[in-house]
Fold this protein.
Amino acid sequence: MVELKKVSRSFTEGNTKHAVLKNFDLKIEKGEIIILLGKSGSGKSTLLNIISGIDIPDEGEVTIAGKDITKLSEKDRTLVRRNKIGFIFQFFNLIPTLTVRENLQLPLELTNSDNQEERINTILSEVGLPERADSYPDKLSGGEQQRIAVARALIHNPDIILADEPTGNLDYETGLQIVDLLDRVVKQKGKTMIMVTHSKDVMGLADRVYSLREGKLTETKKDSVIE
Amino acid sequence: MKNYIIILIFISVIAGCGGQKNPEKDSGINLSKAMGKVKDEKFEKAYDKRKFIFPEDHGPHPGFRTEWWYFTGNLTTPDNKKFGYQFTVFRTALSSGRKSGVSEWRSDQIYMAHFTVTDISNGRFYFDERFSRDGNELAGAQAEPLKVWLEDWQITESENRKAFDLPVISIKAKSDKTEIRLWLESVKPLILQGNEGLSQKGSQPGNASYYYSYTNLKTSGIIITEDREYEVNGKSWMDREWSTSALSEDQKGWDWFSLQLDDSTELMYYQMRKKDGTPDKYSSGVIIDKAGLKRQINREEADLEVTESRKNSSGIEYPSGWNLKIPSEKIELKIIPAVRDQFLDVTVKYWEGSVTVKGKKNNTDISGRGYAELTGY
Amino acid sequence: MNSLNKSSIRYLLKHPWQFGLSVLGIAMGVAIVVSIDIASYSSSKAFNLSLDAVAGKATHQITGNSDGIPDSFYRSLRKDKGIRNIAPVIESYVSIQDSGRRVFKLLGVDFFAERPFRDYFSETDSSAGDVFNKLFTKPNSIILSGENMKKLNLSPGDSVKVLINGKEKYLYIAGFIKENDNNRSALENLFITDIASAQELTEKKNNIDYIDVIINNESEEKIINSLLPDGFALQKSGSRSQTAEQMLDAFNINLTSLSLLALIVGLFLIYNTMTFSVIQRRILIGTLRSIGVTSGEISRLILKESLIIGIAGTIAGFAAAYFISKYLLIIISRTINDLYYVVSVREIYISPFIIIKGISLGVIATLLSALKPAKEASGVHPRSAMIRSEQESSIIKKIPRMTIAGILFIIAGAVTLIIPSKNIWLSYFGILPVITGFSLLTPLVIIIVEKIFSPVYKKLFGITGKMSSRSILQNISRTYIAIAALSLAVAATVGVGTMVSSFRSTVIDWLETRLNADVFISAPSLISRRNDAVLNEEILDKIKAIEEVKDYNFYREVEIFQDGKRYHLLASGLSKRSYKGFKFKEGNPEDAWKSFEEGEIFVSEPFAYRNDLSVGSKLVLKTDKGMREFRVAGVYYDYASDQGLITIQYRHFKEYWNAKGYSGISVFVKDDKAIGTVKDRIQSLDTGGQQLVVRTYKFLRDSSVEIFDRTFLVANVLQILSVIVAFIGILSSLMSLQLERKRELGILRANGLLPSQLFLMVNLQTLLMGLIAGLTALPLGNILAAILIYIINKRSFGWTMQFEILPGILAEALLLSLAAALLAGIYPAYKMSKTSPANALREE
């Protein structure tokens, strides 16, 4: 589903070149849930950006659903993202000028999906917020916003979900609710998910857990992290 | 015989400058109203008989309100194609006072002219109308040498020769499709119409005109129609009349005939029609014998009967055939228009055209040609 | 509507200030351009309609020589040549003294010849016969439209006192014409009279002005041409209105260009607003990009938003233009009356071209100015979604590049301007890069000024002061646009102001040299700058006979209409002492005067420029004796007419032209103290009803300057309007700038900054921005002035004028920009200081 081969990416800051990813390999099968751990600045976000086509590596191949996206134009990469990927952000990033329903409608419109109304209602029930459909995001609590964000990431039925610290901006209790939700809607739907997080509570979801350090990936035992 | 119509025409040309046609214009009501309005007591009027002096009286009489020089004629080409023509110059004074102001254009004498040609053989009728002023000499009239003109439509003395007090006259007029260049010479002396030239039109004093005619002018020249030129010969009729007369309340119009018969006599007869359709008592006529002597015909002596009528192209019904009987002269004539539609669709519409005459005089067959004028229909 | 568009619209609605002001800015820009267009179009339309009304269905006109066409020529065409479709015309102007000096065209016609040409009596009542009778029999009878009759408070049978060629006359109202849709505009300004009355009223002895002709084919044209004597011409009807339009060309282009300045300022505003809105929405745009919205879709979104602003602004602009144009129309038609021809405009006319132009300017230009912000939006990286708040992508790095680009732009502009050309549009086109170049230099100026002022502010106002100056630099990508917009607007006022003042003092110098006599006499004229009325020749004899008169000048002005052009010829009877009043641009004065006395001509500078003449050139003129060639002996400075003048000695003029009378007389008085006496004595001369305008040197000079000032009134109005647009611009920039700093300011308040300190801080900042704008405006303003003087005016009118740098105007400009900035800063400052820090800190 997702395969990175010999991916390298470095940034220039001032006069020093700083390698974030070095000769990086990763293969994720359909339906796998992968968690990435790492200190800030370790390159977690860069990895997500590269998988989503937001960023392209200096070297290497990134194959998403059988296509090497590094060979695609910016526009085509965006279209891959639009159709194949759902994003969940730390800061929820709902569109403040759109209601909950409209926020959910947006990906459906972009992908020209049918049964939009029905799908919105279904997913709202799934995330447990059917009554907030016509509220604006700023009237929702953080947890509610993130639930909607999860719904938004899933609604157009993408193959891959990318989540960037989805609980990072939430309190413990609410964070757990989101983990529950992800477990329910992502895992059960058999989606592939790559999540960057610090939260140990999420580990239970993972099929595999990786740590990112100095541009290299090491698989970590789930249990050892939980302990 | 046009003194009624002319006032009306001058009133309506003004109102009709934009070409708007007022159907009421032909009605007698409007006519009387209009005439009442421009009444100006300072104009001279024909109260009494006058002594006619020539050539002066061939020229204009600006103290009177209206005046005209009227010519009609029936002509024939060597190969017997027949034509009729009418050429009339009208003068009207807008005021009786002296003109004030220094401009050459300053004028209170307005001229109008009508010019028609009837191509009898082809059944065609051509007409045209013009207006102008005597200012800047665009139009005018003078006695000696005789000249009456409206721009390039002109009546002039053509040779230094006179017959019966009238110079040999040249008439030139040109319109879009037709043109005449004619020379006229009288073969009979003038006759004074009415009572020694005073022609009464109504019962009020002064409601009369000064009126004389040359009833037989030998005519030759050229007629051009549709770019074809014809050499023509024949006879013309000339009327001169001036007045300041008004119209009686109950008069509606008239039928007027000038007929030149083959026996070198002429007959003029007009019948005034009242609003109720009956002939007015001021209808009258005159017969001129070979020698040029006249005999007055009064209303009771003549019987004019319309035998036929038809609608013209404008939808107005005009008589198109008459029987004229004058038992005292043993005359019985059938008069028919030479071409049916000789209707002048000009500012004020009337019918004026060439007619042919057949009948009996003193129990012998006689024929002739002439002109008829029909107004008030 | 899809969700993207919805979010966009709701964003606009959530920021009413920001977008409302943009709409207002565009509206003002469009309003100014459109109203100038409407005003100048309406005045030329009114003039053309009055020509059309007079020309009627005529296809051609026969024009005669300088005193017209003799009656006898017209008569011979009709009577001898049998030519029918012709009509004589006498045309003049009358002003009604008792009715606010309203001017009407008096048209003298022969009603019998009129029918094919003009359709007056299409709706007359039953009294038409009477009316017609009166027109003929009662001298000076006229007919006019019923509406005019009502407005003048007249009814049939009344008399009205008028001034015609400087003489008082009474016109008699014979009747009126009912208006209908066809004749209304034609009759708007018309008195119709019989040609006889017209000839008497205008005292054209046995002459008419011209003959209208309807020509159907070439052979008719040939026939008429073959009948024309020397000096007569057969011309197409439209050529009269064409030359009138040519006369106004330069005038109109200048008006249009001034109005475009306002629009440019408006466009800066759009640019500004859209850029802001993009910066404000970086995270939002980033999120959209992350979830798969393409960069093309983003830039289209921004363009759509600007389209909405553009459309709203354009609609509002048209509405405003309707009202502004009514006012401008008064000013513009007064100027046309002062300088060019008599026109009276009472109706607003709009052409499809004006509408199209207004819409394209409003909408398309808005879109163009949003291109860059749209591009910037499309470049927002999806990564932005991952970050809480992104520092603005500072342009500091770009400043060296911007500076170089600015200099290149200025050079490109200069090159465009230097290209020798008579094309005024090219010249205006050259101004654009200069302006753009200066805007690109603004960031550099900001950095320099901030470096200087930061310590000063710190010293004076402490840390608050430092922060206020520093944040200009921090937000430079936004502040520089606001500053550049204000700077441009202020520069425009400096440029126009300096140009007008320079021109004014040039004209005053010229007037003082040229008007070197003591008393000036003319007939009352309807066109202020020109004497269209004529004094008869006896008046000069009577003036000469006045004891105190030492010497005199006189001249006769005639219009020569040839080859579709209208020349003004001055026949001068100059005394030698007035020679010094002429300053020559070309030609040695001594030789010039000698040749002049021998029959050669002088031409004024604009005339030489328009017709490519110089000393020694030959000019062929249509004289009453046919076409004659004249040699140019000198080119002199003259500011009386932008059309230019030809001067010939009166004695030689009389050899070729028949025109009689004088257009003006001036006299030298033996003793200065007797000036008043001479003036009184001339005024009390028996002139046979001819009214005289007798003016002393001082009075004439002052009234000429007054006309000059009136001419430039419209420039002043436009200047004020563009300052208003600029003010809106800076207000809008500062509003958004401060509103965006809500959080930052909230933190300051939370940390104990007093509301009054906040208020001070914001105002200090805007004041500094005003100062920067003012400082950059001064050089730009003077450069604009120099361009206007040396290039634009020179190319449109051919005038040389002295350029002056005016400290007064510069000081005013500086004050203006400080005041505008301060004023624009007060509301945001007040609003920010009143906001509770909790609100400011809360999530948006």
Summary: The radius of gyration of chain B is 19 Å. Residues 3-374 of chain B form a domain with the AttH-like fold fold (CATH 2.40.370.10).
